[in-house]
Amino acid sequence: MANRRGRPRSEAVRGAILTAAAELAAEGGPGAATIDAIARRAEVSRTTVYKWWPSAAAIVLEGLLESVRESIVRPPGSSTIEALVHHVSALNAILADPAVGALLRNVIAAAVGDPAIQAALLTQWIEPRRGAVVDSLTDAVATGELSGDTDIEVVVDALVSPPYYRLVFGMPPLSEHRVRALVDAVWAGCS
Amino acid sequence: MANRRGRPRSEAVRGAILTAAAELAAEGGPGAATIDAIARRAEVSRTTVYKWWPSAAAIVLEGLLESVRESIVRPPGSSTIEALVHHVSALNAILADPAVGALLRNVIAAAVGDPAIQAALLTQWIEPRRGAVVDSLTDAVATGELSGDTDIEVVVDALVSPPYYRLVFGMPPLSEHRVRALVDAVWAGCS
Amino acid sequence: MANRRGRPRSEAVRGAILTAAAELAAEGGPGAATIDAIARRAEVSRTTVYKWWPSAAAIVLEGLLESVRESIVRPPGSSTIEALVHHVSALNAILADPAVGALLRNVIAAAVGDPAIQAALLTQWIEPRRGAVVDSLTDAVATGELSGDTDIEVVVDALVSPPYYRLVFGMPPLSEHRVRALVDAVWAGCS
Amino acid sequence: MANRRGRPRSEAVRGAILTAAAELAAEGGPGAATIDAIARRAEVSRTTVYKWWPSAAAIVLEGLLESVRESIVRPPGSSTIEALVHHVSALNAILADPAVGALLRNVIAAAVGDPAIQAALLTQWIEPRRGAVVDSLTDAVATGELSGDTDIEVVVDALVSPPYYRLVFGMPPLSEHRVRALVDAVWAGCS
DNA sequence: TTCTAATCGAGACGGTACGTCAGGTCTTCTC
DNA sequence: GAGAAGACCTGACGTACCGTCTCGATTAGAA
């Protein structure tokens, strides 16, 4: 396997940029996380930033995805309803976290009007998470827990959209108790 | 009756600005609806725009609110479930409308990082609509259709957030049939 | 003689405007004496100002001319040299006065690039004063005090330009003693 | 020898800006030489102009100083009076030149109300020129040509201020013959 | 070791939009 | 008809950030 020639990319620089972007986005909103400001805070040349990312939002998104890489695991040996509660609860906790929530809001704002961010957000954030819920529900249909003519997409929507909705509009996040109530109601309604 | 002094505000100018902002936001996203561009398209002086609105997003929001002023009416003589279907269906239709949906996405993006827009969006758009649903559900509790310990906020969230979720992330809107399935499931789950 | 119709022009308004303009010009230089600022300080409508003067500099000039209307009188029974000293000394005193000097500097700055101000400044300020000196020198030629081939314009220039020069470039004004030395030298040189 | 890092400053850009400013100031007066107009005519970005100069007048002044860098040389082997005639004549010629005269008028106008321009004008234009005349006169005192109690400042004022005076008030410039007469008269008056 | 290719840093430059200010014009009402 | 009040347009202001560019300095593997 051939090693590249030339000076290798500095991991320290990459990390400093991701950190700086995350801090700025969390503190001052999308207006603060400009490429200029990121470069200044990371003590890095603007040129270097432009070399690796196309926009400030792309940096924030990359940091966001890196910080929440795990967490789509279904607890082994759990019932369907428990798996759903687990998933929605975890999602809700992530979005309610002030740091992560602020980052995601910034990325969502940037996705409007930047198709690249939009696509990355969809394929790298939304779809994996939906997929996990879809899997749980598909299993439930297979075992007969759920009727075969259940519209799974609708159920997923009802389960996962409330946390996003509250985040996006700046409403207080759902409590653990309400998450439980939400999943119970939806589950009861379709089983 | 006291007549105002000075030259009266031109309604033509206001209309041209709202229209221009709506067109730009629908066409090119939040990046396109700058105050400069709005003033140019409306053939109006930039200073005039600044005199009446604090930001481009405020213009878009005002136009949006003006264009969907009605539409929170509960059809008379309807059952609770019918009223809910009516409401969610209407909401979904509004958000699925390419023009209105694009405008709202822009406003949502602007609300991140602009507390004034955020507050206006919440009090003038979100809350009235939630209120209508809350009313229907409160009536249902009063008539015994719904159990007294139902958490109404949770039910509202489950009903109204999916259309926003799909709009925000650029997913295809819910079909009429799926709206019906959503309301049925949630209703069944909590009654 | 028929009286004019309509409301007569308010003398109070005119005075307030002239005063405000003079104060602003003296305090903050030409940048401060804008029509907006003058109208604000005089507590007068901008429209009214525009109705009577074409520019801020015109107001300052009018106030300036009004404040130094007299002062071109030759002391009776004086010799030519005494008359010259009197004139240059008076001119120097006027220009050295902080208030008047500041106003004149403003008007001079405005005259560059405003032909109307330029013409008014020349005919209403410069020429009357030069005329007085020219008269004294012409008399001196007539009485034989001065040679007939003296170039009077040159002598006038040498006498009156230093105070303006020092005002325009912000140099300290001539002392009374130096004014005397100046007139003596020029007089000695041409007689 | 240390080489500079970064992209070197474009001399072409600097020259284009100075030229454009000079042309605009000469043509249209101080109102025409705005930074916007200069940038447009020089086909240069406005931000670049702001990077190097604080105001339009500073550009005009820099161009002016550059265009008349030489010209304070005393002709070798000349008598004092010849040196004075040479200097005043050269000064008068410069100020009478339509291009240079217009530029200087603009700068003078800008110096009122801009202390930085005022100071630069004084130290970089006025004082070097006065200094040359002062030197000639000091020499003359040393050689006994001039009395020791001559007030040199006064003599300098009498010699150099007339050309400025005529320029500033838009009067026709002195002819060569009148310059000679001026220097002769002042010299005769103090020797 | 030297060459070579890449990263990284510094800074100039052309742009676009920002929000503000002043100059003017016009319209309406009041004295 | 004078004056007040205020809407509107024009155009320049100075700033911030964008993205591109041209350099020099640094750091490695490859020749």
* Average residue-wise pLDDT of chain A: 93
Q: In CATH, what is the class of the largest domain in chain A? A: Mainly Alpha
Q: What's the domain count of chain A?
A: 2
Shape of chain A: elongated
Task: Please give the largest β-sheet of chain A.
Answer: none
Which spans of chain A have pLDDT < 50 for at least 5 consecutive residues?
none
- What fraction, in percent, of the residue positions of chain A are helical? over 70%
- CA-based gyration radius of chain A: 20 Å
User: Largest interface, counted with CB-CB under 8 A?
Assistant: A-B, 45 and 45 residues
Structural category of chain A: mainly alpha
* Tally of alpha and pi helices of chain A: 9
Task: Offer a concise description of the structure.
Chain A is mainly α and 191 residues long. The first copy, chain A, is built from 9 helices and no strands.
Write a concise keyword list for the protein shown above.
mainly alpha; 71% helix; DNA-binding; 191 residues; 2 domains; homotetramer; Arc Repressor Mutant, subunit A
